[in-house]
Amino acid sequence: MAVLVLGGAGYIGSHTVYELIDAGRDVVVADNLMTGFRAAVHPKARFYQVDIRNRGEIDALFEKESIEGVIHFAASSQVGESMTDPLKYYDNNLSGTLVLLQSMVAHGVDKIVFSSSAATYGEPEQIPILESDRTQPTNCYGETKLAVERMMSWTSEAHGLRYVALRYFNACGAHPTAAIGEAHEPETHLIPLIFQVPAGRRGKVYIFGDDYPTRDGTCVRDYIHVTDLAQAHILALDYLMGGGRSDVFNLGNGVGFTVKEVIETVRTVTGCPIPAEIAPRRGGDPAQLVASSEKARRVLGWKPQYADMKAIIATAWEWHKSHPDGFGAQNQ
Ligand code: UFG
């Protein structure tokens, strides 16, 4: 029996596939390559170019492969774009998952690990954030992730499907071998944008706001290494296979770093001065997002390995040095 990874050519999906294969699992990857990269897919995974919104394609996959559980990353994930093109997010994230769940129910596939987000909370009620805290998304991306969680919950009651929703905080870093790493087109995330300076692709970085109520005025985020996230997906799948009930878990380090602290860490790791300029706040950015992941540690037995920001940044730097154009030419 195989594990089906939807969106397995994307950033977190591709790292999860590497961990699954290292753990000796049989892996099928499906991705429409809208934002994912064929070159990011582990050579030992069976790859299908499939769009989850296409019921025929998904049905054919479940009929061809014997699937024991699904890990679902396939989604659009840019917060800013979700505000200017919300229907794209309803279509890809919500309708796509609707079709997927219909096909899973029809084929008796009853376990799914879903890639959710800290964006489901919106402006936090307290720090660190608990899974039981209020969910009131401030952007359409978070809204669609929360809607999928609810859709899975109702489907679970009606059809016995079981799910784990993993609410990630800020994913970062790269595979320790630097075989795969973080690449988005266009890039909007802080850490890969900072690396474009030592890579010679931009002259400086912009800090979006320095008047937040934080220790240095810049936003605080909880940065969690992508390999640690990947391990959590495997634990969540095993939890469901062991009969675990449907649930929601935060995944973060529990430690917050400001934008200025992240830039300073990249300066230390790379030895590059990295000029930074203060720019206006970016709309919809909460001042602080820090997770309590105590529940994932207790229930899933999750033990993140990368606690240190410098170590996380060092893995990302190895990837960016060896792949200055991301998957670039490799993907042609
Ligand atoms: N930032 C800058 N300059 C930049 C880019 C980002 O100062 O050029 C700041 C942002 O304002 C934010 C922090 O760096 O304060 C981190 O920004 P990212 O865009 O890297 O990440 P976000 O915290 O906005 O987003 C992450 C995930 C989303 C998820 C969100 C939850 O990438 O998928 O957390 O709120 F929805």
Features:
10 helices; three-stranded mixed beta sheet; single chain; seven-stranded parallel beta sheet; 14 strands; alpha/beta; 332 residues
Write the layout of secondary structure elements.
Blueprint: E1 2-6, H1 11-22, E2 27-31, E3 46-49, H2 55-64, E4 67-72, H3 79-84, H4 86-107, E5 111-117, H5 140-159, E6 162-168, E7 170-172, H6 190-195, E8 205-208, E9 220-221, E10 223-225, H7 226-241, E11 247-251, E12 257-258, H8 259-270, E13 276-279, E14 288-289, H9 294-300, H10 309-322
Parallel strand pairs: 1-2, 1-4, 2-3, 4-5, 5-6, 6-11, 7-10, 8-13, 9-14
Antiparallel strand pairs: 9-12
Helix pairs in contact: 1-7, 2-4, 4-5, 8-10
The structure holds uridine-5'-diphosphate-4-deoxy-4-fluoro-alpha-D-galactose.
Uridine-5'-diphosphate-4-deoxy-4-fluoro-alpha-D-galactose binds next to α6 and β8.
Q: What does this 3D model show about the protein?
A:
The protein has 332 residues and is an alpha/beta fold. It is built from 10 helices and 14 strands. Uridine-5'-diphosphate-4-deoxy-4-fluoro-alpha-D-galactose is lined by residues 77, 79, 117-119, 141, 170, 188-190, 193, 205-208, 219, 221, 259, 282, 285, 289.
